[in-house]
Design brief:
17% strand, 3-stranded antiparallel sheet, 346 residues, Ribosomal Protein S8, Chain: A, domain 1, Wheat Germ Agglutinin (Isolectin 2), domain 1, alpha+beta, 12 strands, 2 domains, 11 helices, homodimer
Chain lengths: 346, 346
């Protein structure tokens, strides 16, 4: 797989977004979050965000638009994206939520009417490092991906969620879809001609299959938990739809316009008065988890999201893997905008 | 299965708890929440709460003790149970959280050092009816039930969570374990000599099996999501441990004392300004879900938690099913305390 230097990726993203008309701090924020997930080895939710934003500039996204705070109370804010890119809204949401949570103990900020923010965990990692316990839940209003438990017709997007919290060392940052998998993963499997290791897809006719092409061709997938525990993913997916409605956004609506919504919930750990205890208990738990006997075929038991963070740290010095197709997509965007391409080693 | 009249169950619980020394309003609150889950058909997390509390009165529970608010800010409170029963702490948590959320938009209340609260959803249903979006996450500090994803040794209790939100009709109330199943369900399967429909248990030796006896005999179970999606349940289980530490409670510790902790997060829907929109979007989504084609063997697609609520409503007029063994347990507790037994029709 081609590899780029971490700083070259940051530089590339910054130049592309600046050329599109984003402010300096927005360009850096977006690029750093995209680079974190890319450096963590996730080809579907990392640097592709840069190309995604480029493709929408002039239609869904205006780099000069600012998200608008529609309502505000001591512990909450409601933001309308108003044509600002998802991560620009996210930056404002983080600023508001962390400031409010430091004052009141907790804050919730919901954003409606915005665009894709890619990997959710990236936005939470810095918060957990500062001592926040954070949740982020995102929804896409138009995609037909996941069926409700017991059904075969898609009613939900893949509605992802992330959770993050401090430990005595790196924070724990977990990021997952409330559907059986992200559409990025389903597309990657399908392109490689691979199947899922369990049948988690439905054909349009409603037949269960391990072939990811089924969902791409207008079928559906099971909720998170798959065939055994799908009622749990279903409940979480619907919860995210409810938060979207709370924010004035559209619940899943194949007839509507494609918009994204998200809700950020942050709790200020210091409000509870004993972060030393948190660190000591997390130290004990993470040691115990690492000492757990692994299943056959598993080298060692890791913390949630640990692999991504470990790889992200390594990639900062050793370089960041970028799939051929992603590199081509990024450089096509660069060419359209007259920006110097991203140079990779083969 | 024996059946009791709903009002007889309420009357029985009230009399038993009053005899134990609980205040009138605590007795009613505990009984009504236990009865809701029991009426919903859940034999493992309903009326058994009454017997559980009886068995701990004189050791872990003192009916006269009041939970203590250790810290408080505009949007948060930290409560130490101090020997008060779990549901008594829950009642205070709900009072504080809903009052604060109406003022600030959101509130989080964490409780440490308390006892079992049984079915979580019961406590959230009234909140969702009032217009709150609520989450409840609970932890037990000593049980060794669920392994981390990739491992075979139990590091977590079954750490349940519930979510609830308003619709245009009944609220959605979902309640599930972040392990593959509750220990109540595993015990029920084992007693009936039944297996799980998927291998989700580990023997002490670390072998995967569909036999629930494995976890009861000192093995473990997979996290929620089972073999396919266990990294998601693992992340949620660990999140609940982190919230426990935040509240000053003990993370899972087989060497420690058995205590329960829980965290309640409530968001006040009106703060976001458009509950009419919430109701209309929920009306559209619930209709769409109900119209989804069911999988073979499924009669119709239901909302999360719908079956429990429908059955609970029916049981209020037709009577509440109580398993033989549960009825015997309740009446043994009644006899110990000199309380008139619960009368059931065979």
């Amino acid at each position: 797989m081609p590899r780029v230097q971490y700083n070259d990726l940051i530089d590339f993203g910054y130049r592309l977004l600046s050329k599109l008309g984003f402010a300096e701090d927005d360009s850096l924020y977006i690029t750093e979050n995209a680079a974190f997930t890319q450096a963590g080895g996730v080809q579907t939710h990392g640097a592709v965000l840069l190309a995604n934003i480029e493709s929408q500039c002039g239609s869904s996204i205006d780099p000069k638009h600012r998200p608008k705070v529609e309502r505000e109370q001591a512990g909450m804010a409601l933001i309308d994206g108003q044509g600002a890119a998802g991560p620009v809204c996210m930056r404002l949401a983080v600023e508001l939520a962390t400031r409010k949570a430091r004052e009141t103990g907790v804050a919730v900020v919901s954003v409606r009417n915005t665009t894709w923010i890619a990997g959710l965990g990236a936005y939470l990692a810095p918060l957990a490092r500062e001592g926040f316990f954070a949740q982020l839940l995102a929804q896409s209003s138009k995609c037909l991906d996941a069926a409700p438990a017991g059904g075969v017709d898609a009613c939900f997007s893949t509605n992802p969620m992330a959770i993050a919290f401090p430990t005595d060392a790196d924070p724990v940052v977990a990021d997952f879809s409330t559907a059986a998998m992200s559409m990025g993963k389903a597309n990657t499997l399908a392109k490689a001609g691979r199947k899922s290791n369990q049948p988690v897809f439905f054909t349009k006719a409603g037949e269960l299959t391990d072939d990811p092409k089924a969902v791409i061709d207008g079928g559906a997938m099971l909720p998170a938990g798959g065939d055994f525990d799908g009622h749990k993913g279903y409940a979480l997916a619907f919860w995210i739809e409810a938060l979207t409605a709370m924010a004035g956004g559209s619940c899943n609506n194949p007839a509507g316009e494609q918009r994204q919504s998200f809700t950020l919930i942050v709790i200020w750990g210091e409000a509870f008065g004993n972060m030393d205890w948190v660190r000591s208990e997390m130290h004990r738990m993470t040691a115990r988890i690492h000492a757990t006997r692994p299943r056959p075929g598993v080298k060692s038991v890791r913390l949630p999201g640990e692999r991504l963070q470990t790889q992200a740290a390594r990639s900062r010095t050793e370089g960041v893997d970028i799939a051929d197709s992603l590199l081509a997509t990024l450089n096509a965007a660069a060419e359209r905008r007259g920006v110097k391409p991203l140079a990779a080693e083969a």
